[in-house]
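Supplementary Data S3. Sequence and structure tokens for construct A.
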Amino acid sequence: MSTRKELFDTQTIVEEAVKEQIEEPAKYHVFLLNDDYTPMDFVVDVLCNFFNKTAEQATDIMLTIHNQGKGLCGIYTAEIAETKVEHVVQYAFEHQHPLKCVMKKA
């Protein structure tokens, strides 16, 4: 018959083995890219509506996009990043703007 200590030791070993197998999912950066046609207020609108940024945060990111060519909108797991990119691209297309949104592994 197993003692209580043996059961505890076995459970601890199993828990440690499972923890070693579990990895945090990969993260992806989502960027908006600068273009010469999309209005700045549309970019701010996208940042507020799709990335939950405040008007001030969105304006700062928009200026970064304008001055540096791209701006980081957020860091997400692959599925969420893909969804954000698809939604932004579709929204821009519907409003006839060439705004590009991309994701890159962090």
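Construct B, processed identically:
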Amino acid sequence: MSAVCQVTGKRPGFGHAISHSHVRTKRRFDPNVQRKRYWVPSLGRHVRLRVSTEGIKIIDKRGIDVVVAQILARGERL
């Protein structure tokens, strides 16, 4: 599963893991992306979204209909 939020567009960040001896190795900071199923009244069906925890809060605040309309306006498939 890709670590990209469909609501916020949040992607993995990259940086270094620094050991006790200060050796730097590349590492990846993944966002907390979860697969959630929502009922969308305007579409009359359930949709599965890959959303970060911040995206879940946005859906709770704005409403699923508004967020799904924005996703569809971007041309993304549900």
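The radius of gyration is 16 Å. Helices lie at 53-62, 64-73.
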